[in-house]
What does this fold into?
Amino acid sequence: MPDQVTLTIDDVKVTVPAGTLVVDAAKAAGIDIPVFCSHPKLDPLGACRMCLVEFVGSRGSRLDTACTVRVAEGMAVRTNTEQVKAVREANLGFILINHPLDCPICDKGGECPLQDQTMAYGPGVSQFVEPKRHKNKRYPISDLILLDQERCILCWRCIRYLEEWEDKPQLGLFERGGETMIDTFPGQPVDAKTSGSIIDICPVGALTNRVARFRYRPWELKKTPSVCNHCPVGCNLRLDERVHALRRIVARENMAVNDEWICDKGRFVHQFVDHPERLKKPLVRDAQRGTLREATWDEALDRVVEKLGALVEANGPNTVGGIASPRVSNEAAYLFQKFFRALVGTNNVDFAGGSAVRAWPTGLSAITDIARSDLIVLVGFDPSEAAPLLAVHIKRVVLRKGAKLLIIHPRRIELAKYPGAYLPVLPGNEAALLGELAAAVQASKGVRGQEARGKQAARNPQSPGPGPQYPDVVALLAAAKSPLFIYGPDVARGERGRATVAALLNLATALGQGDKLAYIGAGANEQGVRDMGLLPDTLPGYAPVSDAAVRERLGKLWGLQPPAEAGQTCARMIGGGVKGLFVMGDNLAALPAVAEALRKLDFLVVQDLFLTETAQLADVVLPACSFAEADGTYTNLERRVQRGPQGIRAVGESKADWAILTALAEKWLAAEGRGDRSGVAPAAAPELPDWKRKKRKAKTGPAAKPWNYPTAQSVLEEIGKAVPFYATMRWEALGEGGLQWSARDLRVGVRDSGLSNTQSPTSNPRPGEFLLVSSPLFWDASLFMQYAADQVRQLIPAPFVALNPADLATAKLAEGSQMTLTSPHGSVILTLKADASVQPGTVWIPATLPGLPAETLGGGRGEPISVVVR
Amino acid sequence: MAEWEPVLLANVHRPNSEKIGTYLAHGGYQALRKALSMSPEAVVAEVKASGLRGRGGAGFPTGVKWGFLPPDAPVKYLAVNTDEGEPGTFKDRLIVERDPHAILEGVIIAAYAIGAHRAFVYIRGEFFLGVKRWIKAIADAYQHGFLGKDILGSGFDLDVSVHRGAGAYICGEETAMLESLEGKRGQPRLKPPYPAQVGLWGRPTIVQNVETLANVPHIILRGAAWYASIGTEQSKGPKIFCVSGHVNRPGNYELPLGTPLREIIEKYAGGVRYGRHIKAVIPGGVSTPMLTARQIDVPMAFETLAAAGSALGTGAVIVMDETTDMVEVARRITDFFVHESCGACVPCRLGGFRMLERLEAIARGRGRPDDLAKLESLARGISGLTFCPLGTGMCEPVLSGLALYRDEFVARLNTAAKR
It folds into this structure.
């Protein structure tokens, strides 16, 4: 078959790849063929009959559907004959027989294909005077989506999306003939995690977004292309604004990232942006009453400069530090660490899940590599809950291309039902298991493998021999030509995490696929904040803080060099390592133990959207903008730097993170009395307190350069100078699709980053005890969920603990009963659930449930936690 | 032509005809022995040479269809269509109930020929006796070594199972039947790919009608040349005609293809009741266009009926005498199709019930002056434009009724106007 086929459509010659559908070929020729059921991302169906066109052949012409017929050499198609026009008119007439003409109150009105096509191809008047059929309106198919069965024209796009992309056939056609309607199965609402995609592809207003419906008219919206801020996939979406409110979020196509789908968090969880409880003014703790009161920006920032400065002066720069959120933009993360490194003079910067996690710095080679892989190894990572779009891509390659999955997880995750292998592993035993697998793979590789194993055995004398335990798994691994190895933060924390990642790297290397190892973090911009050096031991661009050459280079850029010794980790800073702390965008104090620790600080600054538990403890609270209100760039899990431009006006007096940090730095510099050109310095200079004068004397040598960042774009420009592989990342160059930095550009001490195959102890639950599994859950109680719309908030589950039914039976525990769970770190009371996906001997308490029960028990510390259930 | 000695219906009137003993006593499973001694390719060649065409309605050459199977496919299936639902058709039911082994023998030979080791019988749910008879026949065939492993020492394995339909006419359409067999909603699939390439659970599948398969043992036993000598140029072999309607002796009549319609009605079915005259005849089940009294000398064969503007369909001859109300005929048949529309595609789902509404109004004497034009425009927006032939079938009684008996519709409208 030739690769390219030439055909004629309405006398226009067009050449397209063989296998193209006629409807797509017409699009390429600039000819519009109306469709409803046909969708470029869904398999051909041929149900709506809108695209009937004439195929002219030697034996006369015949009508057929352009959406199901594939092009052939020399094919002649006519889309504008009288016959075709008549058929379109008749067909639109049929579709409109029962379609209610409630366009004036329909959410789709104004962006509705049925409206548009009726205008373009429809009959002017209806020939039907009979009453329309009545079916359900406002019919919930899930907590987030309503179905109007009267508006529905039965194109099955929603059915097909759920079947073909989600592999969740949760919608179906019911009844027959004229009574046919789309419905869910009894008692089984749609729960696919990207279910909202069906709203986007619905060609009429039959499926509506319960959070956004009736809040906009499409033509009034200001539409801003942006990226999602919920998980590291970085799905492309569009912010639809009207009258300074974010009315809705819809998906935006980016074939390299999210195709044209987004998950339900990305779509429905956005009310936090214009929530009434958003902080609108800076707050400072009133010296007399001890409570927080509103203040001006000047007062709040002056207080920060004064108090942090005093702590630095009194106890040295290493007694203050900063913890940021991995959601913040690259610009915010960069300026945050620059503030501490260049101005304060400490490397005490980190984020929760930052330095504690052994993260492979280059992320996924590319999201599109998923579609090219034949084996995906998932270690301690559950895409369905943590990054649903990845699960969609993975399911697609499994269903369409026969790829297999090797899943190593303490819980039988949703993807474990697909072909491949699922290896249950107790928390903490991942390294041992991976070590065994690596050894078995090497053993199966013959002589070369023999040597390698000899080396490994020498390094690791207690390593269990190449056991015959997993012949199927070894065969699976050995057969893979283009595997991907993906691990998540749950298995990469602490010392055990080091061993696990080393073992995984060994396994990948043994298969000759060392460059296919990917770490996928939890924060939306986790890749970006790591790139920006928001870590106590690495500088922007991953150079270790000990690298004198890089320090010197940064010193030239910043005016001052960062210190050479590594800073404190997040845990140490919270655990009393510092007296002054700046927390940007993370609600650390949601965990009571952390709140207790933060109370002991001399000075706490919190920069956030809401008066969180952490902000309530703060001495100064700085109101920040959400991702929707500020320009910023975000780097996703495949190192794609993407623009997130401002889509709505900033709420109240809140400011972008980078702008707050810039203003703070200007005041700091002014307080130091140099490097200032903004005119703030003279005002502040006369009343310099003692410590500042002393500091000025103490500090000789180069001075900090002024912070001259009028825009986020100017920050990005400096990032390009600080981080070599961001050199080409200019705002304009990023465009609407973003740019990936090349993993090959990162040579700095990463490949030999001290990972070695260390022996890892295996853990087993003692009798009567269970090992805690705290892997994430999609609908959790994270901060944005708490400030989401009511429809979304009700999806936050009541705190629970899940056990294997067999364990429940053995322990004579009843489902639904309240049990006290105790670990060395704490104790919680939870409702018991039976869940066969939970391995015997373990309890599953998802991360970030209300009240943080898993975290209270010590989950997420990187060590196995034994739990007693009473 | 000499009197035709029934071949397909040779056994049905014998006592205990459904029992395997009766079947064996009258030469049953001899064709299977012969087929198993031949190569599968030789069996396919024989069937191809016989000129056998499918009896389910479309009349596709059976041997040619078998040749479409990809030869290297590891798994192939045979699906037996016993979902006889076309109004006026009752031939398959007779064979299934009275002579199930005749079909089963054809099933085994066909499976052998195409290399299928699994055959699925899809049977209309309402055929309660037929289901029992199929199941019993299959069980007995296993007992006698005609099914299972190593059939008759040939090394050929075949398992057959029965699946009951749930009452949808559309499941008689081969791809809808496959959907239903897979446990899904019965609605047609997009073709191509045809079932012979991508069929049941994605495997190459041959779907055959019961009557078609019943022909196969006779072709094997008596040879393709004998079979090809029966019938007309393009329509070979015997055919069971189901004659119903206003005739004296309605029933199944097995006759060579090409027998004139008049002969079937007058000689075999005993002529029109009460000596009345024929007004119209539906020659091949309700989805085929009507013929008028003037056309009944047409030979009942695929090509001749096509030339007459109709189709052989399932060979279900529905005879209507001069007293028949043609508006009611159109209404009744449309009602059936609208009820059976699967609802998948727009014209059939939405156009059908609008057509029915108008027909009901006309039949009740409440028609509007522009109703006939509206009916025609509706039918033109449906016929030939639907996903599967059901929608087209739906329009035939309306279009041919309006073309042939327009005066009756007009008269009914006029009574409406007077009221």
